[in-house]
Amino acid sequence: MDRKVELELIDELRALAASKTFFVDEAVTRNPVEHYLSEAGFAHERDTIMHRLPHAAAHISELAGAGAFLRCDVYGLPVLLTRDKHGVAHGFHNVCRHRGARLVEAAAGCANRFTCPYHGWTYANSGPLVGAPHFENGFGGIDKAALGLKPLPVKEAFGFIWVVGDPGGVFDFDDYFAPLAGELDALGMTAMTIAAEDRRTCDANWKILIEGGIESYHFRVAHRDTIGPYFEDNLSSYRAFGPHLRSVLPRTSMALLPEAARDGWRIRDHANLVYTLFPTTQFLVQQDHVVWIRQEPLAPGRTGLRLATLAPTGSEPAGGKSRDHWQRNHAITIKTLEEDMKIGEGVHAGLASGANDHVLFGRFEGALDRFNRTVAEYLDPAPTRKPE
Ligand code: FES
Ligand SMILES: [Fe+2]
């Protein structure tokens, strides 16, 4: 992060803490509960958001070296990630072009070619069909060159392999990430490794879970037994960068920083930074590591989550610190996120009950409104919601 920006963000939050005021937007806003519950709305989100925008399919350490491959799921699409002999990463539908069999069953490994388990069509890891038994006898006149694996837009950036689930599509990743590219590069996630991870499934809409990560209004209540006491009560700021958000959630230690030591102030020592890369990738930046939180919306009321602690690569297991150190850190994060997931499930059930027509976003929950406005803009370029 630019040093000037870092100090401005700290100064802003220290001033708010000193005056016991909050970072507020202009108006209270509402979001109809239907936006979290509707099957048709979810299908629309999948088609216009999930399958059109980048998904952090893997950390680069999971696809390291020529010949590496990884099978994954991109918002319900079966995907095969490969790294060819030139080191170039590819993403394909994991689907044979003959009659649609799943091409690769293994979760991960190393292979230059993949042979379909049904009739033996064989593909290079860069995509082309390179062999098919009895092809000339049975498929005369069909152009083999047009039967390569169906490619998906792929980009390596900030330590991740990003995939757009739009077969044959084109996506300008550089433009999409441009407003935050410098800050994301500076996090150094390319030189990190996954030190610990968990996967969960939560019975809540994906947007409820994102919302829970970008406000601190709930910290002192919902996280009173975990992280709550270490953070300022209901103080956080946010900025939008195109569709993305950067939230800063300060610990109480930020207000206590001595002015004389200003040159040594480091925002991540005294705040959680949360980058929400639209739609479903969040990076929770902590003092010496980053937690990668990936939402995988499965249904209106069901969301998969991947929660991975990324630690600097070092001589010891990670960052010169023991595996135990990162496991302990990860366990605290998971405990806190489990509190959020449990609350999220309660929220989803509450919304489904019909008790409320809308959720309300207070003026200090502006990041939530901003996020939902971005969703609405992708779904419907003509905005329909108005501030209260
Ligand atoms: S479906 Fe793959 S070779 Fe037939
Ligand atoms: Fe939380």
Summarize the structure.
By secondary structure, the protein is of the alpha+beta class. It contains 10 helices and 20 strands. The strands form 5 sheets. Strands 13-19-18-17-16-15-14 form a 7-stranded antiparallel beta sheet, covered by helices on one side.
How would you describe the overall organization of this protein?
It is a single chain. This protein is of the alpha+beta class and 388 residues long. The protein folds into two domains: 3-52 and 188-379, Alpha-Beta Complex (Naphthalene 1,2-dioxygenase Alpha Subunit, Chain A, domain 1); 55-170, Rieske Iron-sulfur Protein (3-layer Sandwich), CATH 2.102.10.10. It is 26% helix and 28% strand. The chain is built from ten helices and 20 strands. It has helices at residues 3-18, 34-37, 39-50, 135-138, 173-177, 181-186, 206-212, 219-222, 323-352, 366-379; strands at residues 29-32, 55-59, 68-74, 77-83, 89-93, 108-110, 113-115, 122-124, 129-131, 151-152, 154-157, 160-163, 192-202, 237-241, 244-250, 271-277, 281-285, 290-299, 302-312, 358-361. A seven-stranded antiparallel sheet has the order 13-19-18-17-16-15-14, covered by helices on one side. The longest helix is centred in the C-terminal third of the chain and has 30 residues, at 323-352. The two termini are 35 Å apart. Fe (ii) ion is lined by residues 212, 218, 222-223, 340.
The residue-averaged pLDDT reads 94
Give the second-level CATH assignment, the architecture of the largest domain: Alpha-Beta Complex
Tally of alpha and pi helices: 10
SSE string, helix = H, strand = E? HEHHEEEEEEEEHEEEHHEHHEEEEEEHEH
Widest sheet: strand order?
A: 13-19-18-17-16-15-14
Secondary structure: number of strands: 20
Global structural class: alpha+beta
* Oligomeric state: single chain
Estimated share of beta-strand residues: 25-35%
- Which radius of gyration do the C-alpha atoms yield? 23 Å
- Associated small molecules: FE2/S2 (inorganic) cluster, fe (ii) ion
Annotated CATH homologous superfamily of the largest domain: Naphthalene 1,2-dioxygenase Alpha Subunit, Chain A, domain 1
| Number of separate domains | 2
CATH class of the largest domain: Alpha Beta
User: Which spans have pLDDT < 50 for at least 5 consecutive residues?
Assistant: none
CATH fold naming of the largest domain: Naphthalene 1,2-dioxygenase Alpha Subunit, Chain A, domain 1
